Amino acid sequence: MQILQQVFGYPRFRGLQADIVAGAIAGDDALVLMPTGGGKSLCYQIPAIARRSNGQGLTIVVSPLIALMHDQVRALQEVGVAADCLHSALDYAQVQAVQSRAWRGETTLLYAAPERITTAHFLDFLDHLAQKGQLALFAIDEAHCVSQWGHDFRPEYRQLALLHQRYPQVPRMALTATADAITREDIIERLQLQQAQVYVSSFDRPNICYQVVEKADPRKQLLRFIEDEHPDEAGIVYCQSRKKVEETAEWLLQQGINALPYHAGLPADVRQRHQDRFLREEGLVMTATIAFGMGIDKPDVRFVAHLDMPKNIEGYYQETGRAGRDGQAADAWMTYGLADVVNQRRMIDDPQSQASEAYRQVMRAKLDALLAMAETTDCRRVRLLAYFGEDSSPCGNCDNCLNPPQTWDATQASLMFLSCIYRVQQKSDMHFGAGHLIDILRGKPTDKVLQYDHQNLSTFGIGEKWTQQEWGAVVRQLVARDAIVADAQAFNTLRLGPAAKNLLAGQEHIHLRLSERAERKGSGRMRRIAKTTPANRMHVDALDMSARNRLDALKAWRREVAQQNQLPAYVVFNDATLIAIAAQNPSGLGALSQISGVGQKKLDAYGSELLKVCGSVS
Ligand code: ADP
Ligand code: ZN
């Protein structure tokens, strides 16, 4: 507790942190499952500091990415903790210097990549430390990398079992944000953690507001979302293809949004540069494929947007989880339309792929769960958490809770659509796309309708009362339910699917949300997070005018300090801390030290400057 308050400046532990820390200080092994942003780092950093000061030596942190190590080390140094890292970009002399410091007992935490740790040279070094009783703890971050079931398998992680075999007396802590049960079991087995205490936190991220919007003009929708809700704030925009990543980034730039592309097809140095800029500068939007993300510990990402739907809820949750690690309000926003459903289904059913039928079935079920979340008219968080095995009640912080959607009974329209496909096929022995079928149902005598004499079908004009958009929702729902199937080889023409039968037999009812446009008319901007935000977290919207001015001044000051010291801004102070300072306008150092995120070293280094900045704003 003392370390938490004095070094890190936080008043209290979050969730299971206190238990985890106590266990590690006592020397127990642990497997820690916490969602992204849950606060995993402190779980091993505090025991590392405690064990070092108890004379128990050095903590080794295994981490898969250089960028990640680097930032953690800088952040620790900023709060006055002796941390170092070893990675492939260091030369021999630098490695020697790092190891000498550790050997002399000057280092508290040493970060290293798994392949480094299992070299003979490094093991030799560890052997010597172990003989002196100077190995305090092994922390294995991103532990799901050890499992082929995880989403990021790294064979080098498998070697880490030898830490246990070689140094059985040294406690270990494995940490990950991956929830699913098979991966969990696999981690325990691969890392030989059978004796470890397993800590599973709730996967809820209460500060993230989930929104899914119907795809109309996705780029424009995205632009409006960024301009209205997140001007000059950092965010990630996920797209499925590399090409779309580049096009979207370029387009956003033209629209005056500071955007950068990132995907695996870009040269390594460009990727590195873009990632560094995203971490260090404020207000950048990274447009990326899913290649971007792991180890991006930037706490002030204010939104994650999906222009294309991910494959499953795990992916969606992982990606959206990168928003709002600092606990401040953040948005997960996705556009979603018929093409997404069709594309994802097609990838699973692709006859070219070698996948077994059993595998395809698992994938279909996973996709269905995500589709259900996208189409639902009730709380999205309840659906998400249920997927991870957690019960919850409506959250008050998703689009459906904030603006409960009107629904309409689309059963009749669905039947009309199915019979229209049937009639058209009967008449012309051909299949057509959604657009043409909707024209028939709405009674539009287009050239194509006339060409095929479809104005004489019994279904012509029977669906006039529904808008184009409402029909779009019907089609999407029918495809999602497999009642119709889109043929990739033939311009996405539609056929009746296996599930059509039950619908046609009148055995199912379909309720759909009323189309967004009609519903939103006049409702303006969505009301934001309020009820569920814990009292110790604040949102900028709640600040009065003079507090806002103070916040602007504090951010400008932070930018300057960050530049001078070549640090990411959030390492100086994160947004949550600046907002709290702006809101409370502390009268002196004593009051300032009470604010969450202001530890002793930062108080000494920046305290009087902060008070001056606040004082300068009237
Ligand atoms: P994870 O690694 O689980 O994604 P981090 O360790 O990066 O999460 O923590 C996320 C953010 O929460 C960081 O900015 C961290 O400083 C902050 N944090 C962690 N624990 C606490 C706490 N007990 N009180 C306040 N802030 C905390
Ligand atoms: Zn909700």
From TrEMBL:
Reaction(s) catalysed by this chain's protein: Couples ATP hydrolysis with the unwinding of duplex DNA by translocating in the 3'-5' direction
Family matches, as PROSITE patterns: HELICASE_ATP_BIND_1 (PS51192), HELICASE_CTER (PS51194), HRDC (PS50967)
GO cellular component: bacterial nucleoid; cytoplasm; replisome
Enzyme class: isomerase
GO molecular function annotations of the record: 3'-5' DNA helicase activity; ATP binding; DNA binding; four-way junction helicase activity; hydrolase activity; metal ion binding
Residue ranges of domain HRDC in the record: 544-618
Record keywords: ATP-binding, DNA damage, DNA recombination, DNA repair, DNA-binding, Helicase, Hydrolase, Isomerase, Metal-binding, Nucleotide-binding, Zinc
Domain Helicase ATP-binding: 21-197
Superkingdom: Bacteria
Database matches in Pfam families: DEAD, Helicase_C, HRDC, RecQ_Zn_bind, RQC
PANTHER family named in the record: ATP-DEPENDENT DNA HELICASE Q1 (PTHR13710:SF105), DNA HELICASE RECQ FAMILY MEMBER (PTHR13710)
Family stated for the protein in its record: Belongs to the helicase family. RecQ subfamily.
NCBIfam families, per database record: recQ, recQ_fam
Name of protein: DNA helicase RecQ
Organism: Lampropedia puyangensis
Upper classification of the organism: Bacteria, Pseudomonadati, Pseudomonadota, Betaproteobacteria, Burkholderiales
